[in-house]
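Homework help board

Subject: predicted structure for assignment chain

Our instructor gave us this sequence and asked us to write out the predicted structure in token form, then describe one feature. I got the tokens but I'm not sure how to describe them. Can anyone check?
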Amino acid sequence: MSAKKRIAVLMGGPSAEREVSLVSGAACAKALAELGHDVAKVDVGHDLGRVVSELAAHRPDVAFNALHGRFGEDGCIQGALELMQIPYTHSGVLASAVAMDKPTARRLFRDAGLDCAEGGVHGRDDVVGRHVMEPPYVLKPLNEGSSVGVKIVFENDAPPAAKDWSFGESVLVERYIPGREVQVAVMGARALGAIEIRPKGRFYDFEAKYTEGKADHLMPAPIGEAPYAEALRIGLAAHQALGCRGVSRTDLRYDDTKGTPGRFVVLEVNTQPGMTPLSLVPEIAGHCGIGFGELVSWMVEDASCPR
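My token output:
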């Protein structure tokens, strides 16, 4: 085991993913304490002064960032930690910010030669009451994670209505890609593995991700040897295209509806993937022989303060 460290686990936060982050943070804090580290749990909110005071009082060697969503995964808390010169886990300010901003991430994926779904950013007035492309298509908030707010407009569905609008002034509209949900875990410079998710509802939404029994996990993804290797290549390439470090998870669609070889489309990179009992990165790591304690210990050793 590595030398004992003082570790502040950042969790909770003010985003729509607060409850998930609390579960992730509690699991990570428990594992780190069992490894002999001095662990303090810090519930991050909008009161940055309180968070800074708690961190200053604990004087951590490392901040383990178990936050999800806005303010915790988009470069905001990373900037504060850099100002305090506290090494932290996962990606830095720039990679975190561009990964959370879906339109920017799409441009970087395409510059790296990775395939993305047809689409772009549209204003509210362009989308409400009309189809900006033939269904099926997907509406996504510009900067949320865990499928928060994502809506699919299927064939024969009415166009988005004003009374149901929840996207702010703009929304990302993408062509719906049929096929399979495949997700790749990356750990440092290595793609660990790919898992297929088969939701029992219409798509892999927030409820399916965090409710037991709402989706089947198939590890390793049963997509064939060559497509599996390609999924790993793309997952690592997406991680590197955004400048990520530490652990990430790349979400892909694999369209093999017309036979193989199919088409992989990059949806997004999650720079701070979940660490809950239903989360995919620990499951993929476990399949590779990396236990939960070993995984979080590696994240702590990998932590840095880029500035």
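Reply (TA_rk): Your tokens look well-formed. For the description, you could write something like this. The chain has a mean pLDDT of 91. That's the kind of observation they're looking for.
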